[in-house]
Specification:
Belongs to the YggT family. The protein is mainly α and 97 residues long. It has three helices and two strands.
Length: 97
């Protein structure tokens, strides 16, 4: 019972963190369209949160297509897959206990 509740709580927290990071990626992509001041603390925070993940993806997958960077889209799809597969798997595991 306790282990089941712990797994459910971890799955819920993982789901929440994934959703927050998806919103960070979306906001960073939208902000990049308007050419913001690079010294703005919000822009710097968004850059620090997203650029390491984008760089990792760009290392393995060419993401520039016609002048458009598809790295944010790949990140969102990857996070959605993790959310739909692993988080649901954790919930199912906790229900079977």
């Amino acid at each position: 019972m306790i282990l089941s509740t712990l797994i459910q709580a971890l799955a819920q927290i993982l789901h929440m963190v994934i959703n927050i990071y998806i919103w960070v990626v979306i906001i960073a992509a939208l902000v990049s369209w308007v050419r913001p001041d690079p010294y703005n603390p919000i822009v710097q925070t968004l850059y620090r949160l997203t650029e390491p993940v984008y760089a990792w993806i760009r290392r393995y997958i060419p993401t520039a297509v016609g002048g458009i960077d598809l790295a944010p889209l790949i990140v969102i799809f990857g996070l959605q897959f993790i959310d739909l597969f692993f988080v649901k798997l954790l919930f199912e595991l906790s229900m079977s206990m």
